[in-house]
Amino acid sequence: MRSLALLIKNCLLDVGIKVNVTVRRKRKELHVLLESTYFGDCQLLVEEITKCFTDIDDSLEAARIYTFLFGQPLPQWVEKIELFHDKRNLQDQLDKEKQLDPNVDINSKEAIVCDRFIVCGLGSLGQHIVFNLKKFAYKEYEVKICGIDKVQPEITEFDHFAELLDDSIILGDCRRTEVLIKAGIDKCRAIVLVTSNENVNIEAAIAARRLNPNVHIVVRSSRQNLNQLLKDQLGNFVALDPVDLPAAAFAVAGLGEGTLGLFQISDRKLRIVECTVAAEDYRFVRSPAYLLHKKHSRLLSIADLNTDRLFFQWQPEQFVQAGDRVTFIEYVDQDFTTSHRYVELADYYQRPQASSWQRLDQLLHKYTDSAFWKFQWKQMIAWFQAVRSRRLILWGILTVIVLLGLSSVILFLNVPNISWQKAISTSMILLLGGYGDVFGGLGEDQVPLWVMLFCLMITLISLLFVLGVLGLIADRILSSKFEFFKRSLPLPTHDHIVLIGFGRLGQRIADLLFKLQLPFVIVSENPNDCDLADKVPWFTGNIIEELSKTNLVRAKSILSVTDDQMLNLEAALLARDAAKKINREINLAIRTYDRYFSENLAELLPNSQSFCAYALSAEAFAGAAFGENMLSLFRLNQRTVLVAEYIISEQDTLIGKNLSQIAYGYTVVPIYLKTHEPKADGHSEFFMPSDDEVMKIGDRLTILASISGLRRIELGNLYAPKRWQLRAKPPLNSSVLLDAGNQLKNISGCDLELARRFMQSLPAAIELPMYDTQAYRLGQALMRLLPIKIYPL
């Protein structure tokens, strides 16, 4: 090998590349390690090295070339050269597979593992749950599902839905003992109760617990207090609300570009943020991806990369470029409204007041502007023309003014010794129906007959007009339940959210928007007596007609969440067309009940977001059926991401693994860890925990995961790590060996005794199974302590 190394060095020297060359043989492969300050053209380098392989051993199958810059532990690039293709045969391939995993028998069949589930209630939500439970089936792991419903489902959300069930649908009441026994309650892993009647769900849960003390129960219920009591009483019990889960997804959709999710863990608020990297953004530009895992945040996705993976699509040494679309999670200690992303969305109704002199100056400019008065005149005319009763009131006021002036003049000119003040007051009495009061006090010889008849005519006219108008006003006050006396809330002028529909989902969304202090307007068909009625602008009536009153063209987002998906679509299209007239874009979030309709809407309105609430919730119900606690969900890259909580048990697939293996092996993102026992410093809670933390029994871990990530954790199906070779030389100071051994153990996850034995035997080489990010971190940590080279095999 030494002669081959010298040959390669001289060959490269002839083309002007000065390198240090090390050649190692690994089974049937040749590893060529090159170290230099500059390598130039990769293709030229490979061609020159290939010329040196003419006289090597015929048993070698390939050569790998690793190029290292001086002082760097990881290769700059790796190139593989195939050797002697004509000498390979099928037996060699089988031998190689056997060598990689000697415990696998190619002809043997794996033992099949099967779990059974019962789903009660096969409406839209139940069918989506069945579909998502079937996603957990993988290779040797089978999922068998039995469905129970009172009647045969009339509408199926999926083609060939019956094929997803392993038995025919059992028609009957899921509260009955005989029905549950027929469904196999005694041998199922979990029962999911999602009928539309919450009382039936809870009764069936109690019956299921009586028949099987170990079955895991997942219930559709919105009664939070009762749910907690039942959890304490029944045990192994989870209650979820299919309306509450997607509410956050709708609420953040109203925020527009930037925020994908908001939720709280323990006492800390977290948010998922998506942004396009600008050239001057110092947080991301010219930073390698592995450095973006910080104490307060984690990088989740770089969307511009062409990959199917939801998280970790990048190489650790890859630099983020301007124009990349990145998604990250971060937590904030202060309230959301004081965060830099929400200052511009502060409450429109609680702005700080200007000083007295500033207000006076503003008023002077305002009321001396002729354009202001023209605008007020037009506004007043439009206000009177909008409602017929207002026009009647206007004509009544005009009539009163004319009659008051006319009668005052006639009385002053024709009644002796009467003053203007007396004439005007007498006219007012006549207009209010006081004819007898007036002429009971005046002498007959002082008032001409025609004046008395004229005054009688005024009194009659006043009864028809003036008192009629007063009656309209009184009727208006009574019919509107005294809304006349309520404080009128100002309508936001721009960048507000219009929430259409105030059912259960609408109420959840409104509560979230109000807590975030975001400006929004509610439009609903029916009035609702709730706390928000006097806190935000509210329009009640025909939704399409009321939308025009919400300053629609200047709105930032439309959240259309009524129970009628066609009405939701109509409102969204109306808002889009209104915004287009002034060349604006508006965010649209539409509630649907059919996943096919959602897919079609994505093509019709490409810039909108359509959410099938049951489809979103079903993934959380399916995950909960396997024993996990679902805290929240959001959408990322057109996929649903679940916030799931695990409590590590003795037989858990996570036990004994560090967070690097969990994150990169299962493609999930650990965001919170609560250890069963406090650390040496007394802390037991960690947000954005270190990749080196090892899971122990009793630990509580919260992760972000897709449904496929949950499946991999359930089956213990890790993505296979690469095998890396670590070569190290003795350090100048042997006192660093203990620290180096600890770093090797913590980052790679190898045994501590093995790591220390390796450090004591330097110079030496060791093979380690690691993911790319692990290997990169290990190289960066050890290069500060001793000379190393680490490269993939």
Describe the structure in brief:
The chain is an alpha/beta fold.
Would you spell out the secondary-structure blueprint of this structure?
Blueprint: H1 2-14, E1 20-26, E2 29-36, H2 42-50, E3 62-69, E4 77-82, H3 90-100, E5 113-120, H4 124-134, E6 141-149, E7 170-171, H5 177-183, E8 190-193, H6 198-211, E9 216-220, H7 224-234, E10 237-240, H8 244-253, E11 259-265, E12 268-276, E13 297-302, E14 325-332, H9 356-367, H10 370-386, H11 388-414, H12 420-431, H13 435-439, H14 449-464, H15 466-479, E15 497-500, H16 504-515, E16 520-524, E17 538-540, H17 543-546, E18 557-560, H18 565-580, E19 587-592, H19 595-604, E20 609-612, H20 613-625, E21 629-636, E22 639-647, H21 659-666, E23 669-674, E24 685-687, E25 700-705, H22 707-715, E26 722-728, H23 737-748, H24 752-760, E27 764-770, H25 772-782, E28 788-792
Parallel strand pairs: 2-3, 5-6, 5-8, 6-7, 8-9, 9-10, 15-16, 15-18, 16-17, 18-19, 19-20
Antiparallel strand pairs: 1-2, 3-4, 11-12, 12-14, 13-14, 21-22, 22-25, 23-24, 23-25, 26-27, 26-28
